[in-house]
Amino acid sequence: MSARSSKPHEIVERALELSRADGCVVIADEHSTANLRWAGNALTTNGVTRGRSLTVVATVDGKEGMASGVVSRSAVTADELEPLVRAAEAAARGAGAAEDAQPLVTGVPEAPDFKDAPAETSSAVFADFAPALGEAFARARAGGRELYGFANHELVSTYLGTSTGLRLRHDQPTGTLELNAKSPDRTRSAWAGRSTRDFKDVDPGALDAELAVRLGWAERRVDLPAGRYETLLPPTAVADLLIYQLWSASGRDAAEGRTVFSKPGGGTRVGEKLTDLPLTLRTDPNEPGLESAPFVVAHSSGGDQSVFDNGLPVTATEWVSGGELKHLTTTRHSAGLTGLPVAPAGGNLILDGGEDRSLEDMVAATERGLLLTCLWYIREVDPATLLLTGLTRDGVYLVENGQVTGQVNNFRFNESPVDLLGRATEAGRTEKTLPREWSDWFTRAAMPALRVPDFNMSSVSQGV
Known about the structure:
20% of the residues lie in helices and 38% in strands. By secondary structure, it is of the alpha+beta class.
């Protein structure tokens, strides 16, 4: 068995055969990426990469209970496979009982394509996109603006096998496009981003046209002080805030009184109304255009993720339903501790239930307020309220009497996404969006724009 000639499913089967532990989980991830980068209206670099990583989870039933050991390595050769399995077993035998120990998952039907070759991306994914990008460069050059950015496409084929008989497979394409337009003197900057599965649904020319309008808005500068302003949050900003909310929605942490979802006096806030708007925040592995893994893939344990849950089906879940908190994230272990239902987090996030109104429609209905482009450098200040701080970036615009009348300075903000949902007075049309802050970790989102009557701009920022 050579290093790269072996098929991923063969690697998984061989590792399971080598295992001497009481239980074993093997995850093989086949990675391939293709990318383009550009600056000053010209391509600078492009490339294609390939790789394989292997994770072995060994479980050992000792005197103190079930223990687990996890070892992950990349570029594992045939000679290194057995030492990798033995290392996981040694780690399990040297560990204490695992708090999250559960029987390994059983009863999930085998994936029909488990033995098929992995899916791969290549530069061909940009066959239509690259020429359109070149045309956008020409238009930007003629219009006196410079385009900077990158396009990245990744395809990961995950093969999961267990000693309990699971043989699962998932192919995950992930594409991101980020585009910045700048004035030649670099004093004005505008950003747009898109998430895509295959680059067939992104138009760099349309994005350039959108950014040209925003650079035009920025020709008039208005300085405003810190304070609370009626603010229109675009879908990308809403995604960044609500993704962090999902990451903070641990059922166990809430039940133990440590988060914004903890009920005073004990228990959780499940069942409480978070907003009067009829909004539903949900995940669904089968959401069209945002498909994600329909089973748990856990390379380590921590928070509300457990290696013992590998292969557990992930189903559609409403975290907030019609404005009411319905679920918090749990593993099988934390569900047992809290009495909450088992609810893995999932790989996408959708907020819907708003009105069929575009962001442009919402601007037109604004007497005076701020229109944001995106958020940046988001950090947690207080987990008890989920207070976050961060910066606006690449364009904050003043709206007066339904028209954008100029660009204002950037701000630092202090807000809690949970509190924002409660204060929002309008939600627009849900659309696919790219969260800018979390795009390295979470790209599959669909959000509406939100109107917040009193968004807290806590201080002025000098950033562009």
